[in-house]
Amino acid sequence: MTGVAIAGAAECDLGKTGRTILELQTQAVTRALDDAGLTLADVDGIATNGISRFSATQLADWLGLQPSWCDSTFAGGAVFEMYVARAAQAIAAGQCRTVVISYASDQRSARSRRLHAVYDEGTPEAEHEAPYRPMYPISYYAMVAQRYLHEHGLTRADLAGVAVAARERARRNPAAWTYGLGPLTADEVLAAPMISSPLGRLDCCLVTDGGGAIVMTSLDRARDLPKKPVEVLGYGEALTHTGMATAPDLLRTGAIDSGRRAFERAGLVPADVDVVQLYDSFTISVPLGLEALGFADPGAGLGATVPHNTGGGGLAYCHPGQLGVLLLVEAVRQLRGVCGDRQVPGARTALAHGTGGIFSSHATVILGVDR
Amino acid sequence: MRLQHCLGCGTCQHPLRPICVTCGRHRPDEVPAAGTGVVDSFTVVNRTGEPFVLARVRLTEGPIVLTHLTGIPDPRCDQPVRLVEGSDPPVFTGRKDTGSDDGL
Ligand SMILES: [Zn+2]
C-alpha cells in the first residue's frame, strides 16, 4: 500500500490520426483530467517523454503549467511504470499533489518508425554491434525467441498462438486497430513475411499513433473524486543491459527482479492478481514475461491461464512506440469494471508490466481497487 | 579479437573497459581470444540485400559477442563455432565439437 491512487485514465485518439504529438498529448491529458473530475489548474506534477529533447518542460509550456515536480526519465516503454513509482513517492513526500503521466506518438501518421538502431558515438555498441547491422529492437527479441524455442522444444507455430489470441481479445475492444479485421489464424501468422527469424511480421507489435494519460493523487483525496480510486499497491523495477551481447542468459530477463520487488512491496503473490497487462512488443514477450512474473513455470508461459492483455495489447490494439501508459489505462479500466465484453469479472487486483529497449529495462506496477 | 583477463578475480570480459566489472580492479590485462565458442542464439536477418545470420557467440573464455555466422546453412543453438581467421569485423563459422569447451 502506498496511500497514492490513480484517479483518472484516458487514451488520446489512436491509430492513424493525422494529429501532432502535442495535439495528442493535449487530448490525453485533458481527457484523463476530465475522467478524474479535475482540471489543468489542479496539476502540479507531470511526467512524460517522447515530445522533444526537454519533453517535460515542453509539455508544461504547451499546457501553461509551472509544476513543482517533473520526471522525464528515458528508459524505453517501461518508463511509465517507473513514473508511477516516482510520482507515488513525490505525492507521499508532499512535493506535489496531482501528477499527470502522459505519452503520445504520431509515428504512423508521420511515418517516423525506424527499424535500425541509432548508435551514439563512443559507445561499445557503435564499435561492436553496428558493423553487424542488427535490426533494432527485433533482432534481439528474435534471438531470445530462438533460444526459447530451442530450450523448451517449441516451434514458431506455438508462438503464433500468441498473435492469434491477441487478435481475439482486440475483437472485443472497439478502440483496437484490428477490431474490425476478423479472426487471425496461426497459418496467417506463419505465412507472413519473415523479418528476423523466427519472428515474422505478425509476431511484431503494430505501428500506430496513440497514447494516453493517467492522473495520480493521494488515496484520501481520490476518495472525494467522482471515479472509484485505484490504489498503487506496489512497484519494482530492474535495468539489465543495453548491448545485445551483455545478458548472460537471454531467458532470464529483468522482469524476474522487477516483478519480485513489486510483489514484495505490495505484500502479494502472483495468485492474488486477477488481470495482467504485459508489454507485448513481440509474441515471445508474452510467454517469457508471464513466466518471469510468476504466472507460469519456465517454458509453460504459452499455457498461462491468468487473464492478460485484455484490450489486445501492442500486437492487436495499439502500439505508439511506447506502450507503457496504455497498460496502466487498461489496468485501471479493468479494476473499475468498465471493460464491457472484455471485462474480467470481479477484477480487484491488476499488474502492469512495462519493458523498454531490448528487454533492457523493466518496471512493474501492482494496482488494486480501494478496499 | 581482444578480451580482458582480470588477475584479481580471474574473469574474462568483452568489450574492453578501464575496470573489471566483476571485481572493480583497474586496467585488466588485454589478451587475445582463443577464437572458439558456441552459438548462444542466432537470427536470420532479412533486411535490404542478402539475408545474413546474426548471432550471439559464447566464447570459450566466457564473454558473449555479437557476430555473424558464415558457411553454416542451418545454424542451431549450442553448436560449436570458431573465429574465421583474419575476418574484420570478426565472424564465426562451424567447427567440430572436441568437447574442450565443457566446464568452461
Ligand atoms: Zn576482476
From TrEMBL, chain A:
Domain Thiolase C-terminal as annotated: residue spans: 236-368
GO molecular function: acyltransferase activity, transferring groups other than amino-acyl groups
Key word Transferase present: yes
Transmembrane segments: none
Keywords: Transferase
Entries under InterPro entries matching the protein: Thiolase, Thiolase-like, Thiolase_C_2
Organism superkingdom: Bacteria
Transferase found in the keyword field: yes
Pfam families documented for this protein: Thiolase_C_1
Name of this protein: Acetyl-CoA acetyltransferase
Source organism of the structure: Actinoplanes italicus
UniProtKB/TrEMBL annotation, chain B:
Domain of life: Bacteria
Domain ChsH2 C-terminal OB-fold as annotated: residue spans: 30-84
Biased composition (Basic and acidic residues): 94-104
Annotated stretches, region: Disordered: 77-104
Residue ranges that the Swiss-Prot or TrEMBL entry lists as coiled coil: none
Stored InterPro entries: ChsH2_C, NA-bd_OB-fold, Thioester_dehydratase-like
Record-given protein name: ChsH2 C-terminal OB-fold domain-containing protein
